[in-house]
Amino acid sequence: MTPCVVGRAPKCDSYYMKDPDPVPTQYEPAALPSRYRRDIRVENVILNQTDLVNLISIIQNKTNDAQRLHIKSIGPASLDEQKELEEDIQRVFRISYNIMDFEDNSFSGYDTINTNSGDFPDKIKSVYISNSEAFKEAANGRLPQNSVDIFIDFKRPSMAINFFNLPSNPTENNSIANVYGLNEDWVISTHQKVREFFDKRKTKRSFIHRSGIYDLFLLGVYIPILLWVAFRIESKFPNAIKESSIVSLIAIYAYGVLLSLMLGRVIFQYLRWLFPIVEYDSKRSIAPQIRGVIGIILLGLGTAFFYDIIRTVFF
Predict the structure, then answer these.
(1) Which of 144, 211, 221, 305 is the most buried (most CB within 10 A)?
(2) Residue 301: its pLDDT value, please?
(3) Rounded to a whole number, what is the distance in angstroms from the first to the last CA of the chain?
């Protein structure tokens, strides 16, 4: 099953629970290119079930405004035609969503999310919310005049060692929100609402996912620790080192450096995995407990490390 893609209808099984009826051609204005567009990179946020419900509520309110603008642009009509027009537009110009778990099962629907449903996934891989997909299905690919598409990628960074993907590169994540349309005020206000929603859920973990952070981690933290460990080993086993041949020492040190650098990369990738750039906080998630344990271990190791340095240097 192909994952959802921003700007296209996600090719997921049962994405539409029921195909909406086509839009009557007399009620559809000529398709025009979007004049205004604003994009939001969704990153460094933690979301849960309640947040997804609130996000759809925000998009629903802005879609209601977009419906009125769409109807107004069509022109005057009789009372009967006006009522029929409003019913037709409301029927097809609506929010649709697709939620996928890590087994590529989809949970799809319209307008509101029933998080109490037994089918609602606990571990979510991605969420796609749009107020244009249902309209495009009913109007043979034509877009409404004002649209918003949001794709949230909850996949964690891979722990696999890939020598073609340098850890110095920023963490890849496809989360994005696209707001576009013909009405500038609607685009600006919708962009502001969506941005405020994600800004309120920001975390302070962005630094670990930036470009070049791995190099700083090596030079500023990891390599100094390795040098101190090497110094302590030499001070503990001076006789064994003196009795060893130069070739053996070079081989041991070279192997130790390579193994240590590989271990450092694993540690860094695990930190990125443990603190993902976009995280879904499910009720059964054990990530907070793991982060707590790791924090206690690092605090203990750091305290022992600095105590050893102070004792060696000053006493």
Answers:
(1) 144
(2) 72
(3) 64
Domain ranges of the chain: 25-204, 209-314
Q: What angle do CA 151, 155, 158 make, to 5 degrees?
A: 145
Q: State the maximum Cα–Cα separation within the chain, in Å, rounded to a whole number.
A: 102
Give the global pTM: 0.75
pLDDT: is 118 or 218 the higher one? Answer: 218
274, 291 Cβ separation under 8 angstroms: yes
164 and 42 Cβ atoms separated by less than 8 Å: no
Q: Which of 149, 150, 151, 145 is nearest to 185 (CA)?
A: 145
The candidate with the shortest Cα–Cα distance to 182, out of 37, 308, 24, is 37
CA distance 36 to 151: 19
The tokens describing 50, both together, are: 């309640």
Strands 36-41 and 96-101: unpaired
Average pLDDT over residues 161-165: 73
Strand ranges, E, within the chain: 36-41, 45-47, 96-101, 106-110, 124-130, 146-153, 176-181, 278-280
Strand 278-280 and strand 45-47: the pairing is: parallel
Question: E strands of 160-311, at which residues?
Answer: 176-181, 278-280
- CA–CA distances in Å: residue 209 to residues 73, 169, 180, 200, 205: 45, 8, 28, 20, 8
